[in-house]
């Protein structure tokens, strides 16, 4: 078994780890400034991020990052100026970066944004609407986890332009799955605020559905006909219907059953397996039956 923590392997992978760290930092900074307020908790989370990545300090431009983060308070540099300077450095690095991969980097950036908006332990309206704006500007990620799920959830929350406390708690509970806050007090506070909230799968919004040579699995009770009729229609379009979900599955079709499409608690095993496969890197698009029927 490969030891991914071995010093030899870390030398080999330092370039990709540095790129991932830069993308995460860029997202963290975007999340922090999304409400135009930068408080002490957010700056402390930034300092702890730097401490956690100190092994990269000898790789450009990390020395500049670390110096700026470490000296912001002691030199009386305004927090907003420091964050903007750091973001500028990230953009400069991105421009010069040969390794830069669009999809991978954008997903790392999204994870960083999650980190930044939870850094102070509070998810406010401005941050939610800024997140919605970023998601709308990055629809090329629509088939990738967790973009498709978070976009569906945010769209359902901002649709009426009013965010209630239950919606805020559900969104916080979803986002916290992708954030390992360094400040243990803030992390504990978020755990308390989201205690008892169950987050499950969410259907992709306006998914691109390709039938030819793609594999489709169905779960739940359909409201527009029965399962065999849908399977025949998929075959007629060149698709491959299957009864069990696996790494080869391209689409999991969720039956409507008059529930909100992101509330899967009644569907059980197949959705749970799809989520596990997606989290381990397999691209399985979860689609609502209405989208499939519309595509047919």
Automatic annotation (TrEMBL):
User: Which InterPro entries is this protein grouped with?
Assistant: BRCT_dom, BRCT_dom_sf
Domain BRCT, first and last residues per copy: 206-296
Q: Which Gene3D superfamilies match?
A: BRCT domain
- Give the superkingdom in one word: Bacteria
Entry protein name: BRCA1 C Terminus (BRCT) domain-containing protein
